[in-house]
Design a protein that fits this description.
The complex is a heterodimer. By secondary structure, chain A is an alpha+beta fold. In chain A, 13% of the residues lie in helices and 27% in strands.
Chain lengths: 427, 187
């Protein structure tokens, strides 16, 4: 029997035995997923469990200042961006948010998905300028201090890469593999409308061509209606200045539109009568149809959802109670409802939506659920405030064919095996 | 000279009124005027119709030399693609199950080629090519696609005049294009 305040030190050899023994045990436990950090902790460090006092209570912790900028616990070291190790190149590339490891609707800044076309520039904000010219009364040049003098506003918006995922196999294994080019943050900046009014729009102003200060000089044309609606110039993300990967010191935000249009490292706004027909809105970010035509200027990201828990790569530890949880979003406004099916799409039930349900933000949904231990397929579908219903992959393919590259908002079903293993039901 | 003084006073008032008027147009008075020289230096946008293409020219033959030095490492000696996109061929494949999208088969506007090369290529040193070299490389790529004779020289006028084969195959966004029923049971 162990006493809480024992006077005799436990022999070191016994403690070492416990620790090493636990490593062997730990190796036998399936890592990751729902099969349980508790089970793993129990196996690895029984000396820290009741009735013993854990070792971290018996010595002072790290002093103040150990981390001037806080980092996650070392035990969360595997929760990182999902970056393929076999990309053809890493200058024009993307890294995914580990959606299945996150809760709530806000993506931590360090895990926000990245897509860049010429690397991530290091920009000195004191030497950064925003030029506004073209069909305006007064062409203007702004410093970052100028931009921050405008009245500010903050909004929670999702951002999603338009190619998330492609239509062709192989399909990914995890929620992150499938739709991890998706994140959500609270953005602070200035309404683009205010900045345009400062220069004075001239008649005939129909488009604003935005250009980034990266080595790709990313260029996209934004319709003037969007620029005068909810578009904004953002300098902060989740309370701190933008991360370099997100466009530091300034980016365009066009909520609900495909990620590529939210031009990062924004340096120039050219007000025009015609779109630029830039390379990234003609040869890329257009949608090829089976008949050889291609859709252009396909801006909106349509309603979509995915179950993140349980999801591919995870494992249900045992039959019994489990919460099904996931995220839903739509570029066309608010999510109205999310339905969940636990019988391969034969029947659906309404999930609970976590408040707040915000326009063009991620919405978290939940469904309490009892797993009887039998194999089955679970999936979710989002319905947005326009009444649009998230389609199946088969329904999308029937209309668009698999030459289509972007705007895949299909339902992604997960197969749960009798042993609790969760896999992509389409793979 | 009182008249002269009056004139000056009137001018001063007029100037003030004018300034006040300008401020009324600029609600916050933030930022400063961008000068024509500053705009000219930064505005590298070329329209799909070739508007704002700069002066200069380049031949297909010179373009083949520039391409070999600056582009071939990523795009292949003949634009067949490697780490970089395939640039050549694919015409007639877009309506098949194996579409090959290249400059020649897919791009709707030839001037976009100049715009993109000038702003973003080569990937390891963007905006390092002079306008003549950008015209030359554009000419070479168009020539490899059968859209320009091998002895041609390209400039603003001739580049804007090229009709790309896929020009009329782009359509607007018809979405929502998939209508899914809200079936709740027996689906």
């Amino acid at each position: 029997m162990t006493k809480p305040n024992r006077c005799r030190q436990e022999p070191a050899s016994r403690r070492r035995f416990l620790r090493e023994g636990s490593i062997l045990l730990g190796g036998a436990v399936i890592a990751g997923g729902l099969a349980g950090s508790e089970a793993r902790a129990a196996a690895e460090n029984t000396g820290n469990l009741p009735p013993n006092a854990p070792e971290w209570m018996k010595t002072p912790g790290d002093p103040m200042g150990t981390q001037p900028y806080g980092a996650p616990s070392p035990f969360e070291k595997d929760v990182i961006k999902n970056i393929s190790k076999t990309l053809p190149q890493y200058l024009s590339a993307s890294g995914r948010t580990p959606l299945q490891d996150l809760d709530g609707i806000i993506t931590p800044n360090g895990l926000f998905y990245e897509r860049h076309h010429g690397g991530v520039p290091t920009i000195d904000p004191a030497q950064h300028r925003l030029m506004l010219h073209g069909l305006v009364d007064r062409p203007l040049l702004f410093t970052m201090d100028d931009i921050r003098r405008f009245p500010s506003e903050s909004h929670i918006y999702f951002l999603e890469c338009s190619g998330n995922p492609e239509y062709k196999k192989p399909y990914g294994k995890t929620a992150s593999d499938l739709v991890g080019l998706l994140s959500c943050a609270e953005w602070t900046g200035v309404s683009l409308k205010l900045v345009l009014q400062e220069a004075g729009l001239q008649p005939g102003a129909k488009w604003v061509v935005a250009e980034g200060a990266d080595s790709a000089a990313m260029t996209r044309s934004i319709p003037i209606e969007k620029c005068l609606d909810d578009a904004m110039l953002a300098y902060s993300q989740n309370g701190e200045r933008l991360r370099p990967q997100q466009g530091y010191p300034l980016r365009l935000l066009v909520p609900g539109f495909e990620g590529n249009m939210n031009v990062k490292w924004l340096r120039r706004l050219h007000v025009t009568a015609e779109p630029a027909y830039s390379r990234d809105e003609t040869s890329k970010y257009t949608d090829p149809m089976p008949d050889g035509t291609a859709r252009e200027f396909t801006f909106y990201m349509e309603a979509k959802s995915i179950i993140t828990r349980p999801s591919g790569g995870q494992r249900l530890s045992a039959p019994g109670f489990h919460e099904i949880s996931g995220i839903a979003w739509t570029g066309r406004g608010k999510v109205r409802r999310v339905d969940v099916s636990v019988d391969d799409g034969k029947s659906w039930q309404e999930a609970q939506l976590q408040e707040p349900v915000l326009t063009r933000a991620l919405t978290r949904f939940r469904l309490p659920w009892h797993w009887d231990g039998k194999p089955l397929v679970i999936q979710s579908r989002a319905i947005d405030e326009t009444g649009y219903v998230q389609p199946t992959l088969a329904e999308l393919l029937a209309v668009r064919g698999d030459n289509y590259v972007y705007h895949n908002n299909a339902i992604w079903p997960w197969r749960i095996a009798a042993d609790g293993e969760v896999t992509n039901a389409h793979a | 000279m009182p008249t002269r003084k009056l004139e000056l006073a009137a001018l001063a008032v007029a100037t003030l009124l004018c300034a006040a008027h300008t401020e009324a147009q600029s609600p916050y008075g933030i930022g400063r005027a961008a000068t024509p020289a500053e705009i000219a230096g930064w505005n590298i946008d070329v329209g799909g119709d070739g508007s704002s293409l700069p002066s200069g020219s380049g031949s297909v033959s010179h373009g083949s030399e520039v391409f070999a030095q600056q582009c071939a490492a990523c795009h292949g000696a003949k634009g067949e693609g490697a780490v970089g996109d395939r640039l050549v061929g694919g015409q007639g494949t877009l309506g098949t199950s194996k579409p090959v999208r290249t400059v020649g088969s897919y791009w709707p506007y030839a001037p976009t080629l100049f715009d993109y090369i000038r702003r973003a290529m080569p990937q390891n040193a963007p905006q390092s090519l002079c306008n003549d070299d950008v015209y030359a490389v554009s000419a070479y790529i168009l020539s490899l696609n059968g859209l320009l004779p091998a002895d041609a020289t390209l400039d603003a006028k001739s580049l804007a005049a090229i009709k790309m084969p896929n020009r009329n195959m782009f359509v607007g966004d018809p979405r929502p294009d998939v209508k899914t029923p809200e079936c709740m049971s027996g689906c």
